[in-house]
Design goal:
By secondary structure, the chain is of the alpha+beta class. Helices cover about 70% and strands about 10% of the residues. The two termini are about 85 Å apart.
């Protein structure tokens, strides 16, 4: 060790001993810097904390002093802490982080997507009204009514385009049918023409000729035979072409009929849950809006029942997902049978179902769902060799007891979860 460094180390140890300082790395480093300066060493490269501190403003430097940050290690810990605080601040912020221009672009794209492919004056007028509202104030997107309107426009756009496509498909089918009938008649007539031509040819070939006029008559008959044979060739070709076109039109007609069937199936599938046969959540939203419109106009009251199968996860875990699917299908079928013409059943998601009961008050609705509950509790759900116990919890709400339809829906959901919290297998 060079003499100068050895002297610095010696003086550092003596200083620590004289001042009763514990020889920790921090104390040793600080005293070493001081003694090195006394012995004439340049320690600017060692004091990286000062280098960093020179880049801070006065407020930040005071904060470093308050935190007793004396070296790079403690500075690093401090920076990490500040980054974590910043991260928490960002995560807890309710701001979307989107600029005004970005939100405007999203709103513009949304308006474009809402526009129907085919002309629909009423829907175009509603969308233009929404567009003007968004241009004047983007914050209206936070309003529940505006969000409901947008969802309604999406459904109207879809069904408007689908209805027009269906109408065009029916028109195309009608045209194809007419073409088929025309070609069929043409083929039939061309067949008759061929038969007539064959008869004419037979008569000409068998036509008796007198000796005096033999040469001239023979010439005439030959010309007529040639003309008729040419006509027969033309008609035969026409018949072949018509038969070919008839087959093509038949194939086209089959495709059009298949397209019509697919459109009908697509309409059914969009409103019916593929597993349980109950209506979908999307169809529920559509029916609620329709019933709410009737309520606002004519005060036709209606009830909603939110239902959830109790401990359904245990069914999947213990018996498997196939068993769970069978339980959902059976429960849905029983529920639809018990509700009957009083209302409609919807699969809201997973093991959650919803029942809409038009023109029913709360008392009547509870009687109906209590009857369903008794039936379910007495029933045995059997999968293979296993008997599965099934119960459900439910919440019932009445539209007239709430100012807004959103509050009415939320109340049914709240009562459902209260029933589950109170022990399950209950109706609130």
């Amino acid at each position: 060790m060079p003499a100068a460094i050895r002297d610095i180390v010696k003086s550092v140890l003596e200083y620590l001993k004289e001042n009763s300082l514990t020889p920790t790395p921090e104390n040793y480093k600080r005293v070493f810097y001081e003694q090195a300066q006394i012995h004439g060493f340049d320690i600017s490269d060692c004091d990286r904390l000062s280098t960093f501190a020179n880049k801070l403003n006065q407020e930040e430097i005071l904060e470093l002093n308050d935190k007793n940050i004396v070296d790079i290690d403690s500075l690093f810990d401090y920076v990490v802490e500040k980054l974590r605080e910043k991260e928490k601040s960002i995560l807890s912020s309710s701001s979307t982080g989107l600029s005004i221009s970005t939100v405007e672009k999203i709103a513009s794209l949304m308006i474009s997507a809402l526009a129907p492919v085919y002309v629909n004056d009423k829907l175009d007028k509603d969308i233009n009204k929404l567009n003007k509202m968004l241009k004047s104030d983007l914050t209206v997107l936070n309003q529940g009514e505006v969000q409901d309107n947008i969802e309604d426009y999406i459904l109207k756009r879809k069904y408007s385009d689908k209805n027009i496509i269906s109408a065009k498909t029916e028109k195309l089918n009608s045209i194809v049918c007419s073409m088929g009938d025309y070609i069929q008649n043409s083929v039939s007539k061309s067949g008759d023409s061929l038969n007539d031509l064959d008869s004419i040819l037979d008569e000409l070939e068998q036509l008796p000729l007198k000796d005096g006029d033999l040469s001239s008559l023979e010439l005439i008959r030959a010309e007529m035979l040639t003309v008729n044979r040419n006509m027969k060739d033309i008609v035969e070709k026409l018949t072949d072409n018509l038969n070919r076109e008839k087959n093509e039109v038949s194939s086209l007609r089959e495709k059009v009929l298949e397209l019509e069937e697919n459109l009908k199936n697509a309409k059914v599938e969009s409103s019916t849950d593929f597993l349980t046969g109950s209506f979908t959540r999307r169809e529920f939203n559509k029916r609620v809006k329709k019933l709410n419109t009737s309520y606002n106009k004519n005060k036709n009251d209606f009830s909603v029942i939110y239902m959830d199968l109790d401990y359904f996860k245990k069914v999947n875990d213990e018996f498997g997902h196939d068993a769970g699917d069978e339980v959902l299908k059976t429960f849905s079928r029983v529920l639809r049978q018990k509700i009957g013409k009083d209302g409609d059943v919807f699969r809201y998601g997973g093991e959650e179902f919803v029942v809409l009961l038009p023109l029913k008050n709360k008392k009547e609705s509870k009687i109906i769902i209590e009857d369903v509950k008794k039936h379910i509790n007495k029933s045995k759900f059997i999968y293979k060799d296993a008997t599965i116990k099934v119960t459900f919890s439910a919440g019932v709400a009445l539209r007239s007891e709430h100012r807004r339809v959103d509050d009415f829906i939320k109340e049914a959901d709240r009562l459902l979860y209260k029933a589950k919290a109170d022990g399950r297998d209950l109706i609130h």
